[in-house]
């Protein structure tokens, strides 16, 4: 399939996801209003996949951005593909649908296109996003993730969400769902950290075998925000010499080449920026192609290195 800006990939449930997306996470130093403005700019530029999550605490503003572009005629609701996520304190089956409904209320949308279990790690059920004990340690819980999945299946059957999937799961955790008794709906997508320093080749082969579409975050590396970055001394992805050599030869930016690498590897890249010029730059990855040698060279810089800290 020739990749174009409006290309979509068919999911295993028949719905179709755009081949690249716009991410809305931002550190607390950014105002929530900036998320609205960035979403509006992204849609104007051509993005149709908008990725957010309840834990970002900006779904109200993201929803306003989406609805404003529907209202002014730029897009129709069916043109937008919105990804939302179930946070770690809502894994108990009885908390799943209320969490979906809260996101829908905040977004003021009738349905969510793709809803993911944000993480296989579960926190103590309740309204506290990061429940802690007297020593300041996160309090974990142990709901069977398959029970959480059944509750998600019910949300899909009820039409609250079109597709369901997971995020930050490994192969064994995905298999646990795939092999569960009475499975009604396979995961349609998995969202995961994926970039030239973490190419996820083994997991990608597994997902391809099961017709599960991979969506990548941190595709351009990561900022240096404490609590987010696994290693504050980690190399900056966009300064990689191999990446920059290829970008210079192709007269592209390192960010464009980094995303194009994932695109040609079958990964839907999610890039984020609150700067309109950078948003436009990140979107423009469809008018060039990486050669087989370019792909091999970029595959060779893999370090199996994560930017996202999964330590709790």
Automatic annotation (TrEMBL):
Keywords recorded for this protein, A-Z: NADP, Oxidoreductase
Matches recorded under PROSITE patterns: ALDOKETO_REDUCTASE_1, ALDOKETO_REDUCTASE_2, ALDOKETO_REDUCTASE_3
Protein origin, superkingdom: Eukaryota
Single Gene Ontology MF annotation: alcohol dehydrogenase (NADP+) activity
InterPro entries in the cross-refs: AKR (IPR020471), Aldo/ket_reductase_CS (IPR018170), NAD(P)_OxRdtase_dom_sf (IPR036812), NADP_OxRdtase_dom (IPR023210)
Transmembrane segments: none
Domain NADP-dependent oxidoreductase residues, every copy: 21-302
EC class of the enzyme, as a word: oxidoreductase
Residues where substrate binds: 118
Gene3D superfamilies hit by this protein: NADP-dependent oxidoreductase domain (3.20.20.100)
Xref: Pfam families: Aldo_ket_red
Marked site: Lowers pKa of active site Tyr: 85
Catalytic reactions on record: S-nitrosoglutathione + NADPH + H(+) = S-(hydroxysulfenamide)glutathione + NADP(+); S-nitroso-CoA + NADPH + H(+) = sulfinamide-CoA + NADP(+); a primary alcohol + NADP(+) = an aldehyde + NADPH + H(+)
Residues of the signal peptide: none
EC number: 1.1.1.2
Active site (record annotation): 56
UniProt family annotation: Belongs to the aldo/keto reductase family.
Protein name: alcohol dehydrogenase (NADP(+))
Originating organism: Engystomops pustulosus
């Amino acid at each position: 399939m020739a990749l174009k800006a409006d290309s979509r990939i068919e999911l295993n449930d028949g719905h179709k996801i755009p081949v690249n997306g716009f991410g809305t996470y931002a550190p607390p130093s950014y105002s929530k209003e900036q998320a609205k403005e960035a979403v509006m700019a992204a849609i104007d530029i051509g993005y149709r996949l908008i990725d957010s999550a309840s834990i970002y605490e900006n779904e109200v503003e993201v929803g306003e951005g989406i609805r404003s572009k529907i209202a002014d005629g730029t897009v129709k609701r069916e043109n937008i593909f919105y990804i939302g996520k179930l946070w770690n304190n809502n894994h108990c089956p009885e908390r799943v649908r209320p969490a979906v409904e809260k996101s829908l209320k905040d977004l003021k949308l009738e349905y969510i296109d793709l809803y993911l279990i944000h993480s296989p790690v579960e926190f103590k059920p309740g309204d506290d996003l990061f429940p802690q004990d007297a020593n300041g340690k996160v309090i974990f819980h142990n709901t069977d993730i398959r029970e959480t999945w059944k509750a998600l299946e019910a949300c899909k059957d009820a039409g609250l969400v079109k597709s369901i999937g997971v995020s930050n799961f490994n192969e064994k955790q995905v298999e646990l769902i795939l092999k569960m008794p009475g499975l009604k709906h396979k995961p349609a997508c998995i969202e995961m950290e994926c970039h030239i320093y973490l190419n996820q080749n083994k997991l990608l082969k597994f997902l391809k075998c099961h017709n599960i579409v991979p969506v990548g975050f941190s595709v351009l590396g990561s900022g240096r925000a404490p609590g987010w970055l696994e290693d504050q001394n980690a190399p900056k992805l966009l300064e990689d010499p191999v990446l920059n050599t290829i970008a210079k030869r192709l007269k592209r930016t390192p960010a464009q080449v980094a995303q194009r690498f994932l695109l040609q590897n079958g990964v839907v890249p999610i890039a984020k920026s609150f700067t309109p010029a950078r948003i436009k730059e990140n979107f423009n990855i469809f008018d060039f192609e990486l050669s087989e040698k370019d792909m091999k060279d970029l595959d060779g810089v893999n370090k199996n290195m994560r930017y996202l800290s999964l330590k709790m």
